[in-house]
Specification:
The complex is a heterodimer. Chain A is α+β, with helices and mostly antiparallel strands. Chain A contains twelve helices and twelve strands. Chain A is globular, with a radius of gyration of 20 Å. Chain B is of the alpha+beta class. In chain B, β17 and β18 form a beta hairpin. The chains are: A alpha+beta, B alpha+beta.
Chain lengths: ~325, ~775
């Protein structure tokens, strides 16, 4: 790790100003540090200054109920999300997603803001010897390399997958993120916040350099809505998703009236399969429907040389999630 | 010492030995011996130190003025250093010493003289380029960045088949074959295949697995005058001393190697690696103590691994299951260099485990441009078992025989290679019986499938060495207060050697274990003991402690006899009291005897005697596994493992359990998740970390049962002990693979059994799998 200055600020304005003071990402915000420090150790991120957000009094932390839904402050830890009783009741998939992410030690440190902004785990991106496209290089080595963990959707030029378990759950919940920059605040739906990296923006979000993520707002869900997050890993725990699925379903008399499906581990950003959702609405909840929907959801998947198994896996998880959510009425 | 003498064999027949310590005068612990300490659970003597964090490991050494070293490693799988400039790094404040090919001694070679300590040719990513000693790890890292190296990248090869092509890039000038193939044949294997009613022919592969010991490799080196001390994380303090002395041109008495506690080695610390000598040279250059510990990445790149293999197996059998032929063509992927230490004899198990008149094995080592392999817990056997034991399962299915029946039908009671009897010819039989009985193999009722989940069971067996051998030495010192110091130059690599050796001494001396201290892990303070490898510490050093204790006891009773005015032969020690047979009042405590003698001292010296020459001493084991496979998601869950392992007499059942549970744990990792991933196009190791190199977590570990098999083997030594360190890992992976087949009818022949492999296999075999019912009926299990 390179030497850096540790900085404390007192106001959001001062923090945003500092973050934006030059163009080369030499100032970075530090919260839980569970991702940033690993990037710094590998010199993928080489900041000269770290601003400690945990000492910033105006930065929100904790979970609060609102008129319709809930608001989660950016410094809220994964453990808080996992164990908050109101949240478990209202948004079980979110608590489930938090519970299967990382390790207990990491969940105690990691914040939801950091979780949403974490960088990919792609083993080319994380390798110091590789200058991959995402790091400013010319090519994606995974495309013709060891791509068993890589993307089925939205790949190219980068084939890394988004590592968060919370992001797909929040996307399914149609959350909005509240951002704060030097010019004030803006609200951005998570569906827009995440965007496939492109030539001039080699990152997975629309967050500007001088912006902070303040809150995540969750809209309410109609009564009777059920949700779950399923995650397949190489081992039982403590691994990133090979494939995950965040699913939300509302049934009325065995007919599906609302459905949301977001896949994780399959694209550079959490991947919502809107067409499959639409096909579900109005359909009868049974195995045949779910098998069709699973096929539909993965119809556009494009496998690389070593990741075709993820298509089978994703289909199975979609079927399983829908079956679970529609069982016993 | 009347019980020992030295003889010189000038024309040894089996293997020539110049010095043999005969211990024929020793008593033995036979089947009738009554024990008070041995055979009972005993918690580790060093346990409190470890759980309170006081136990000192290599990294914990902190000396006045200590510097910290870091190593610059090759970023290329194959390259030549054209030019190296360390000027800028030298000028960095806090930097005290730098070594590279520019200034390191040119005459220190490594890896069978195929590399210099700092070679200008680099043959794998992670190969040492330069090293810096500085006042902190951070300074050292900063200095590495200032070293300027001009590399000339060279063509490289990663994949074994590519490496064997005639026009492949050459890892070494002479090519990519380590040596001529090792060929073994008995009978006529080709004819045996022709005789067979059924032939199984399959190719199995095993992956490169990394030891990933909790404590990485490394040491702290310090010169005081001519005297070099190394606090080294090693399985062999004497081996390290000998090699370091030789490399540095030092007399052995000027080198001291210390290892107090160790966070695992699993074979990877059998031999000193370059960093040990680098640390010593940096210390010499700087005049400071230098600590050089590897980080996790270096540990994965450049500190050894289990060789990958490709094994083409052919088995031939008669309709009744009698084997007529066993053939194996084996490629062993050794990495860029041969390291030394225990060889990976993948061929051995094919030649020994089953009775078969016609056996042919051919094994070849192949160099590639990746980190070198080194012994890894049961080297060769883990790889061989994965293939042979799966092939036996395939044969059993083809013959419609229970896999256990097939194994029993081909049971070998002799050492077929040497045509000698086995010391314990029924040991494997006992393992089969106990493991299958405790598992319920014969009576297993497959539960009805629940949704996509299928259950299945599998069995696998193995054989291994573990007899222990001479030489090993120990001293027993009786103190004036009746306490005992056991002194030996062995090391505790995390297995609990101190405790096992203390139990032996306590038993012989009739003392409670609290009165025994074991001192080990220091070449300056104890007599020679061998490297802790080959599951041999308790079986090699235990008998030396036994002999020393017998001698100390003899002297003690001689003194006590005078005090009690009795004949020594009539005396016995029980619970710290010397008693006269049949005269309960006539007694003295051991402390009273030694107190009268003090400050004169009783010292017993003991040596490990030779193993029986007329018999072959091996260890055996069997494991039964039940798995659950989710045919939709490809998830394999190992539900339970029942193990039975022959390790001779059990000194401490708790520690044997620990070895078995640890072995199964590593076996689950080898079977399901552990694999070094290398990008073959670029030579990059992609998972040199514990994030993507996935060792099992607690949640991955099945219910484990170790059924004790306590079969004292007096051909091995008077204590009847054989090793248990390595074997429990051997049968786990093939038993899991066999159970997966039993569950879903899909045969996975490539370790690890990843979801990727399983889902791909399920997709291609989808038609043959009836998802509504188990693939075969209960009859196969009869």
């Amino acid at each position: 790790m390179r030497p850096f200055d540790y900085v404390r600020t007192t106001t959001l304005d001062e923090t945003c100003q500092l973050l934006g003071q030059d163009g080369d990402s030499s100032v970075r915000a530090l919260a839980g540090g569970t991702d940033l420090l690993t990037l710094m150790k590998k010199e993928i991120s080489v900041p000269t200054q770290l601003i400690d957000l945990k000492r910033l009094p105006d930065l929100p932390s904790g979970i609060t109920s609102t008129a319709q839904g809930m608001t989660i402050g950016t410094l809220t830890t994964m453990t808080e999300i996992e164990t908050n009783v109101q949240l478990q009741e209202k948004y079980p998939l979110l608590a489930e997603a938090a519970a299967v992410a990382a390790t207990p030690q990491l969940r105690n440190m990691a914040t939801i803001g950091g979780n949403l902004l974490q960088r990919p785990r792609c083993w080319y991106y994380r390798n110091q010897l590789v200058n991959c496209w995402l790091k400013g290089g010319d090519e994606c080595q995974a495309q013709d390399g060891e791509n068993q963990l890589h993307a089925l959707f939205g790949g190219g030029p980068c084939y890394a997958v988004h590592p968060s378990d919370l992001a797909p759950a929040l996307l399914a919940l149609e959350a909005t993120v509240q951002l704060r920059g030097p010019g004030g605040e803006r609200m951005v739906p998570l569906a827009e916040f995440y965007a496939l990296p492109e030539e001039k923006r080699r990152q997975e979000t629309q967050l500007e350099k001088d912006e902070l993520l303040l809150n995540i707002h969750l809209p309410g869900l109609p009564a009777g809505t059920r949700s779950t997050y399923l995650k397949a890993m190489d081992r039982k725990v403590w691994a990133f998703a090979l494939v995950g699925v965040a699913a939300i379903v509302r049934l009325e008399e065995q007919k599906i009236v609302d459905a949301r499906l977001v896949l994780s581990g399959v694209a550079p950003i959490p991947w919502r399969v809107t067409a499959a959702e639409q096909a579900l609405v109005g359909a009868t909840a049974n195995e045949a429907t779910f098998a069709e929907i699973a096929e539909f959801a993965l119809a556009d998947a494009q496998s690389l040389s070593h990741n075709a198994y993820k298509i089978t896996l994703a289909k199975s998880l979609v079927r399983r999630a829908l079956t679970m959510l529609t069982d016993e009425g | 010492m009347p019980i020992q003498h030295i003889k010189v064999l000038r024309n040894g027949t089996d293997e020539e030995e110049l010095k043999v310590v005969e211990t024929t005068g020793l008593p033995t612990w036979d089947a009738d011996t009554k024990f008070t300490v041995v055979g009972r659970p005993q918690s580790r003597l060093e346990g409190l130190e470890k759980v309170t964090g006081r136990a000192r490991y290599s990294y914990d050494v902190r000396l006045s003025g200590q510097l910290y070293a870091a190593v610059l490693r090759s970023p290329y799988p194959h390259a030549r250093i054209r030019h190296i400039d360390t000027t800028k790094a030298e000028q960095l404040p806090g930097v005290h010493a730098i070594l590279s090919s520019a200034n390191a001694p040119d005459d220190i070679t490594w890896y069978e003289e195929k590399s210099k300590l700092f070679d200008k040719t680099l043959r794998f990513i992670g190969d040492e380029v330069a090293a810096v000693a500085a006042e902190s790890e951070e300074f050292a890292q900063d200095a590495l960045r200032l070293i300027e190296v001009a590399y000339e990248p060279l063509p490289f090869v990663i994949e074994v088949e590519a490496a064997l092509q005639p026009d492949a890039p050459r890892v070494h000038d002479k090519g990519n074959r380590v040596d001529e193939p090792t060929i073994y044949e008995r009978g006529n294997a080709a004819a045996g295949l022709r005789e067979a009613d059924v032939v199984i022919e399959q190719t199995y592969t095993t992956q490169t697995a990394v030891h990933n010991s909790l404590e990485p490799h490394g040491c702290t080196a310090f010169w005081e005058g001519d005297q070099l001390t190394l606090w080294e994380s090693t399985q062999g303090i004497f081996e390290t001393r000998e090699q370091v002395a030789e490399k540095l041109g030092l007399p052995e008495h000027h080198v001291r190697v210390v290892k107090e506690h160790m966070g695992g080695g699993f074979g990877s610390k059998q031999v000193p690696w370059k960093q040990t000598v680098i640390a010593a040279l940096l210390s010499k250059q700087s005049g400071h103590p230098v600590q050089l510990m590897l980080d996790r990445e270096a540990e994965n790149l450049a500190a050894g691994n289990r060789n990958a293999t490709v094994q083409r197996v052919r088995l031939g059998a008669k309709r009744d299951g009698t084997l007529t032929a066993i053939l194996a063509d084996i490629q062993v992927v050794v990495g860029a260099y041969m390291v030394g230490g225990e060889a990976s004899e993948v061929n051995g198990m094919y030649e020994r485990l089953y009775r078969c008149p016609n056996v042919r094995t051919e094994q070849i080592g192949v160099y590639i441009n990746a980190g070198p392999c080194v012994a890894f817990r049961a080297p060769g056997h883990v790889e061989a078992a994965f293939a042979l034991e799966a092939a036996m399962d395939e044969l059993a299915r083809a013959l419609q025989l229970d896999p256990l029946t097939l194994r029993n039908r081909n049971y070998s009671e002799i050492d077929q290679k040497k045509e000698k009897p086995l010391s314990m010819p029924n040991a494997l039989q006992v393992c089969y019986e106990r493991a299958t009985a405790a598992f319920g193999w014969q009576t297993y009722q497959r539960p009805a499938p629940t949704g996509p989940k299928r259950r299945g069971i599998g069995i696998a067996a193995h054989e291994w060495g573990g007899s222990g051998q001479p030489p090993a030495y120990a001293w027993i010192k009786l103190n004036g207060d009746g306490t005992v110091d056991v002194v030996t130059g062995t090391q505790d690599i995390g297995t609990g050697a101190r405790t096992g050796l203390a139990q032996v001494a306590a038993e012989v001396l009739g003392l409670p274990i609290e009165q025994i201290s074991v001192h080990l892990g220091d070449t300056a303070k104890g007599p020679y003991s061998p490297t802790s490898a080959g599951s041999s510490t308790q079986a090699s050093v235990g008998p030396a402690v036994f002999a020393a204790a017998v001698e100390a006891k003899r002297q003690l009773l001689e003194v006590a006899a005078k005090l009690l005015e009795e004949e020594p032969e009539r005396l016995e020690i029980r619970d710290g009291v010397v008693m006269v047979e049949g005269e309960p009042e006539n007694k003295l405590t051991v402390a009273e005897v030694t107190g009268r003698l003090a400050p004169h001292m009783i010292i017993g010296q003991g040596a490990r005697g030779p193993n029986a020459k007329d018999k072959t001493i091996r260890t055996f084991g069997a494991q039964c596994v039940e798995v659950e496979v989710d045919v939709e998601t490809g998830e394999i869950t190992v539900l339970r493992v029942v193990a039975a392992h022959d390790c001779g007499r059990i000194i401490n059942p708790t520690m044997v359990d620990s070895q078995v549970f640890g072995g199964i744990t590593q076996g689950v990792g080898f079977a399901l998740t552990e694999e070094r991933i290398v990008d073959e196009k670029r030579g990059l190791v992609l998972n040199a970390n514990l994030e993507e190199y996935k060792i099992p977590t607690v949640a991955d570990i099945p219910q484990m049962t170790n059924v004790p098999v306590n079969l004292p083997d007096l051909a091995a030594n008077p204590t009847g002990v054989k090793g248990i360190g390595e074997p429990p890992l051997v049968p786990t992976a093939p038993a899991i693979a066999n159970a997966v087949f039993d569950a879903i009818g899909v045969r996975l022949r490539h370790a690890p059994l990843s979801r990727r492999q399983l889902l791909a296999a399920l997709a291609t075999q989808a038609e043959s799998i009836d998802k509504s019912a188990p693939p075969h009926t209960q009859e196969g299990q009869s």
